[in-house]
Design goal:
seven-stranded mixed sheet, binds zinc ion, 11 helices, globular, Rossmann fold
């Protein structure tokens, strides 16, 4: 089968690799679309390294073509599925306490990612059936939506609260839509005008240009002087965490959703944390419950990811697709695994 294989930083080769054979508890899935996420961009640029050769891709959807003899679900060949491409052992400490996104065994095997190939063999629990009303392109967003659900749960985001999202890239906009589903009022700080416009179209209550306005003052103005109840940081820009801390009220919670290339230390007034009972947390990945809820929100039509599909790429154009994905001008670029 054909696969886009990362052989070194910046080097993707289209190779003919062995089509996977399934074990009894596995499904063979013919992949249709896979999103190019920050992880793939970092692996491609070399700022993050795993191993080589590597078939990247973790935001995938496809059609089941073969079902192992021990599969305990009603999935049959032809079932359309979104794929949760992470190993969860279900036996380590973190899996057992409900934090399977932190599974200690998730990277023990070389069976990671794998969405940039024509086929993939996965455990049947990693496949989430989708309705015919949801396209494969849209289903490829189940993973990032699930990560946003996880992020908002992390700060106990609750109905009728005010949320500040810093950054209106694809993850900021998906957080926006999930927060609206949860009954929130959403403010967005974003310096790029086009991205602010998109956030407004998607239902943000107010967008703020942090280069021209004082974000914490704007928040206070709209909340009787309190500030936001919660804040999500989706941008690694220096200084925005401090801005978030200044923009939340007493009892406010902040989640650091973004990852960083370096190891920045955070500016925080410990006495303010104490007095105002603030909570600062981080989140990465999603549990199977988050993934299930993401697939359902997408299936119900509660989240519209179509405006976030900026471009489709193919095996033959993967380098330009990766470069488009790295560009500020795109939201998500998807690899079409059936195109030449
Ligand atoms: Zn992702
Ligand atoms: Zn585990």
């Amino acid at each position: 089968m054909k696969a886009a294989v990362l052989t070194a930083p910046g080097k993707i080769e289209i190779q003919d690799v062995k089509k996977p054979e399934i074990k009894g508890n596995e499904l063979l899935v013919k992949l249709k679309f896979c999103g190019i996420c920050t992880l793939e961009q970092r692996l491609y640029s070399g700022s993050r390294k795993m191993f080589y050769p590597l078939i990247m891709g973790h935001e995938a959807a496809g059609e089941v073509v073969e079902v192992g003899k021990d599969v305990l679900s009603d999935i049959t060949p032809g079932t359309r599925v979104a794929l949760d491409l992470i190993i969860r052992c279900h036996a380590c400490y973190y899996c057992r306490v409900g934090m399977s996104n932190r599974c200690l065994n998730r990277s023990l095997s070389n069976k990671v990612l794998g969405g940039f190939g024509e086929y993939i063999a996965i455990h049947y629990a990693q496949a989430f059936p989708i309705p015919d009303s949801l396209s494969y392109e849209e289903a490829a967003f189940a993973e990032p939506v699930a990560c946003c659900i996880h992020s908002l749960k992390k700060i106990n985001f609750t109905m009728a609260e005010d949320l500040l999202i810093i950054g209106a890239g694809p993850m900021g906009l998906l957080h926006l839509q999930v927060a609206l589903c949860m009954g929130g009022r959403v403010f967005i700080s974003e310096p790029d005008e086009r991205r602010r416009k998109m956030a407004e179209k998607m239902g943000a209550f107010l967008t703020i240009d942090p280069d021209r306005e004082n974000v914490s003052e704007v928040l206070k103005k709209h909340t009787e002087g309190r500030g936001a109840d919660a804040c999500i940081i989706t941008s690694p820009a220096p200084g925005v965490l401090d801005m978030g801390i200044r923009s939340i009220g007493k009892g406010g919670r902040i989640n650091i959703y973004t990852s960083y290339n370096n190891k920045p230390s955070i500016p925080v007034d410990a006495n303010k944390l104490h007095h105002d009972e603030l909570i600062i947390s981080g989140s990465e990945g999603r549990t199977e419950l988050d993934f299930q809820q993401a697939v359902r929100l997408l299936s119900f039509g509660k989240i519209n990811v179509k405006p976030l599909i900026s471009k489709l790429t193919s095996f033959s154009t993967i380098d330009s697709g990766m470069n488009s994905a790295l560009s500020e001008d795109t939201y998500r670029v998807l690899l079409d695994l059936e195109a030449e």
